[in-house]
Design a protein that fits this description.
Structural class of chain B: mainly alpha
Number of strands of chain A: 0
Low-confidence stretches of chain B: 1-7, 287-293
Structural class of chain A: mainly alpha
Largest interface: A-B, 47 and 56 residues
Helix content of chain B: over 70%
Order of helices and strands of chain B: HHHHHHHHHHHHH
Radius of gyration of chain A: 26 Å
Order of helices and strands of chain A: HHHHHHHHHHHHHHHHHHHHH
Mean pLDDT of chain B: 82
Helix content of chain A: over 70%
Shape of chain B: elongated
Distance between the termini of chain A: 80 Å
Strand content of chain A: under 5%
Shape of chain A: globular
Largest sheet of chain B: none
Distance between the termini of chain B: 29 Å
Strand content of chain B: under 5%
Number of domains of chain B: 1
Radius of gyration of chain B: 24 Å
Low-confidence stretches of chain A: none
Mean pLDDT of chain A: 88
Oligomer: heterodimer
Number of helices of chain A: 21
Number of helices of chain B: 13
Number of domains of chain A: 2
Chain lengths: 530, 293
């Protein structure tokens, strides 16, 4: 029997690819940057909504109709507001623009992020070095085909489920009549098979994004490639899908059980999912697709180093080294004179946000909160209910949540700086709402609630906004004056942004622990009740 | 960071033989305590959950509040149970991965040996080519029959509370059957390799029949007992029969883990003797590089 006949037995081994994916992730930490960009994209989407909200509230406050709007909203809900021409004439155009912006940002931004992500995986698998620059190279290389594939793939996969859901909503409007009830029952019975169809389709379109970067196809061809590879390798595809589902379900269960005993773990699980599991699993998926290609030989037998020992011994040290580098990069960024304009601009965004928040608060929002039951001088009663040992866990949860937001704020600057500016402004806006005299009994009490942790947290947020603005400036330079020099400047700034936001982790940790453990005590000293 | 990029070429025979100490490992029997702890903790969890009101699920339909937010003591037990299950699933991972790595290394080793023999058998004429061809056919059958089970998947499946024990039993059954099949098929290839070696004028390898038990009887017993216990729901009630199934499947699975830890040790010992002889007969030669197993 010839060797060629033996070679015909090519198989794809899930565990070999999974374990090598872990080591690839360890060797090339830069592959988590696209995942960071993914959370930045979420923030950009949020900032579209927050900008619309801030603009609407401020314009109504300026026109003196904010209180009227809040009363209308309180009495007849969102439908009532839409039916009132005094508000709908402003509200509808803003919402329409926001909706279009959301879809465009989600599809085009998603195309860029996925193109960067999956392109990086192929590079990391086959190369010895993957610099931060390749995020931008891969992102700009195939973002259009990826965006088109993203749109089509989601339409085809989730279209049936969405149609079923819309049928239920449409029929629920006339549930009071017998015919309406029959329509609801019929829609419900149609929804289940449609949802099932979507779930089955999700298994077969799982390789659509890897197909774009590996086979350089797009749209329906990418989806067709995905169907072909998934059906020819159904066992390993199902293995991937089941592993993905179990990981997420188990993490959800941990969060649920831990929350019952007062341990908030949501942010920790988000970090694990975003920076560990998602890159490793997506890399695994990409490499399953890659190895399913006829020209790629079977992975040879190799022993992998034990993963668990690495996770518990070497990984924390490696992470700490990155954070230390981030701290020193962050320090240099703060004191660098050329960065002063960005610091000023970020601080200005925060200040404008505070002013806008204060303005809308004294013009109606504060009164609305009080009408909802907010008691000035009364802190979050959940804090008093938590058992003492759970407070550090709460601190860590706050730290991770804030850190994730700062990562997203910094990297969302790639969208020409605007998302970073808006996010920092929105943080100031919330603070401004709270500083209004109706909500804060005295300025001393307000500072007692904000300053203990805010003295570290607020400058850290402003700093992440500042580096985001610098990233936006670099992106604008590339957009309007394309050239190797500006490309290099953008790469360097992205690397700086990543290090700065990573280096902010210790600061947010200290701030989070203070916020959970010390701030409530100080608040009580200054007259707050819980 | 720490791990070098893995090469894309098959390692040589001597390297594969040296890998034996890492693939054919002895798993300490004390690790059986991890699944045992998980088994006990989930049993306690079930009792505690039941006693705090989950019985409403059966009596008055599903009580969403007790499902979504169990009392803190029960939730604490659940967190501990999940931690114990994670440790237990690590044992499952180790067992399945050991089976995969042993099979994978054996296939790579045999392919390397066959390549080496192919180069030597040419000048020896038809007498050596006949057993070599038979060995290649045997290897083809071995490679076709062996389908690696994902250790990650089975470890995660066995991590699922309660239901995981059924997956654990299935994983052990498949592992035992795969190892038994592997032992039988590789034995045939080793016999032909031995005959080819003798034909080309080198020292043979000590082939002996060292089967691994597939424990089909144990597997069938678990299925039958579980079905009987399910049918006993007429007498014990649905929940009572579920509890009984959990206790039985769990106990059998623990016993099976013990078997899976111990069973392959004889086979591994046999490999240590056989591979040393194979390496003596087929030392690494420059220019002989293998393809893909």
């Amino acid at each position: 029997m010839s060797r060629e006949a033996l070679l015909g037995l090519k198989r794809i081994f899930f565990d070999r690819i999974f374990q090598r994916s872990f080591w690839t992730w360890r060797k090339h930490p830069a592959i988590i940057i696209p995942t960071m960009l993914g959370s930045a994209l979420q923030l950009i989407l949020q900032s579209v909504l927050t900008l619309a909200l801030m603009l609407l509230l401020t314009s109504w406050a300026l026109a003196g109709s904010l209180t009227g709007f809040l009363i209308e909203y309180n009495n007849s809900g969102l439908v009532g507001v839409f039916l009132d021409p005094a508000f709908s004439l402003t509200l509808l155009p803003v919402l329409a623009v926001a909706l279009v912006a959301l879809v465009l940002v989600a599809v085009l931004g998603g195309g860029y992020v996925y193109s960067a992500e999956y392109g990086m995986y192929v590079d990391a698998w086959n190369r010895d070095s993957v610099p931060v620059r390749s995020v931008l190279e891969n992102g700009s290389r195939r973002w259009k085909p990826m965006a088109w594939t993203l749109l089509l793939s989601n339409l085809i996969t989730w279209g049936p489920a969405v149609i079923g859901y819309l049928l239920i909503i449409a029929s629920a409007a006339s549930v009071n009549s017998t015919a309406g009830l029959v329509a609801v029952l019929a829609a419900s019975s149609v929804f289940q098979p449609l949802l099932f169809a979507s779930l089955i389709l999700a298994v077969f379109t799982v390789y659509s994004y890897p197909a774009v970067v590996v086979d350089r196809v797009s749209g329906l061809r990418a989806i067709r490639h995905s169907f072909r590879i998934a059906s020819h390798n159904l066992g390993i595809t199902l293995t991937y899908v089941i592993i993905r589902i179990i990981f997420q379900a188990l993490l959800l269960l941990v969060v649920l059980l831990a929350s019952v005993i007062g341990l908030p773990l949501t942010s920790l699980i988000t970090v694990v999912l975003s920076f560990v599991l998602t890159p490793i699993l997506h890399l695994t998926k990409t490499m399953i697709y890659y190895h399913a290609g006829p020209s790629v030989p079977e992975m040879p037998f190799q022993l992998s180093n034990p993963i668990w020992q690495d996770i518990f011994r070497r990984l924390p040290r490696a992470a700490w080294l990155k954070i230390k580098m981030g701290l020193s990069e962050g320090f240099r960024f703060v004191i660098g004179p050329s960065n002063l304009p960005f610091h000023i601009l970020s601080t200005l965004a925060f200040a404008i946000g505070i002013y806008m928040g204060y303005y809308v608060s004294i013009n109606g929002v504060a009164g609305y909160f009080i009408s909802l039951g907010y008691q000035p001088g009364h802190g979050n009663s959940l804090l008093a209910q938590l058992p003492l040992p759970a407070l550090p866990a709460l601190g860590i949860d706050i730290f991770l949540n804030n850190w994730l937001v700062s990562i997203a704020t910094g990297l969302s600057g790639l969208g020409f700086g605007a998302p970073s500016f808006i996010t920092i402004m929105f943080n100031g806006f919330i603070l401004g709402v709270l500083v209004a005299p109706q909500l804060s009994p005295s300025l001393t009490m307000f500072f007692a609630a904000i300053l203990p942790h805010g003295i570290i947290e607020i400058p850290s947020f402003v700093l992440s906004g500042s580096v985001g603005l610098k990233l936006g400036y670099a992106a604008l330079k590339v957009r309007f004056h394309r050239g190797p020099e500006n490309d290099e400047y953008l790469s360097k700034t992205l690397r700086l942004a990543v290090y700065v936001v990573v280096g902010l982790a210790p600061l947010f940790l200290v701030a989070g622990l203070i916020e959970a453990d010390i701030t409530p005590t100080i608040m009580k000293m200054f007259g707050w009740t819980f | 960071m720490t791990s070098p990029q893995l090469p894309d070429e098959e390692p040589s025979l001597s390297i594969l033989v040296r890998m034996r100490t890492k693939t054919d490992i002895e798993i300490p029997i004390v690790r059986l305590l991890l699944p045992l702890a998980s088994y006990l903790l989930w049993a306690v969890f079930a009792v505690a959950w039941w006693s705090t009101g989950a019985s409403e699920i059966v009596g008055n339909g599903i009580s969403a509040s007790i499902l979504i937010s169990p009392p803190p003591f029960v939730a604490g037990l659940g967190v501990l149970g999940l931690a114990a299950s994670a440790a237990s699933s690590y044992v499952v991972f180790t067992l399945v991965n050991r089976g995969n790595e042993h099979s994978g290394r054996t296939r790579a080793l045999l392919l390397g040996a066959l390549s080496s023999l192919e180069a030597r058998a040419g000048p020896s004429g038809l007498q050596a080519l006949l057993p070599l061809n038979s060995a290649e056919e045997g290897f083809y059958n071995l490679a076709r029959a062996e389908r690696e089970k994902s250790a990650v998947l089975w470890a995660l499946l066995s991590l699922i509370p309660f239901v995981g024990w059924a997956f654990l039993a299935v994983a052990q059954w498949r592992l035992s059957r795969d190892l038994a099949q592997h032992s039988r098929l590789e034995g045939l290839v080793f016999e032909d390799v031995d005959r080819t070696l003798r034909m080309v004028g080198t020292e043979g390898i000590p082939v002996k029949y060292a089967p691994i038990r597939s424990h089909n009887v144990l597997g069938i017993t678990i299925v039958i007992v579980s079905v009987i216990e399910l049918l006993s729901s007429v007498v014990l009630g649905f929940v009572g029969s579920l509890v009984l199934i959990y206790l039985t499947v769990g106990a059998f699975s623990l016993f099976w883990i013990d078997l899976s830890i111990m069973d392959p040790m004889g086979h591994f010992h046999y490999h240590s003797q056989l591979e040393a002889a194979m390496l003596r007969a087929l030392p690494d030669a420059p220019g002989i590089s293998a393809g893909v197993a």
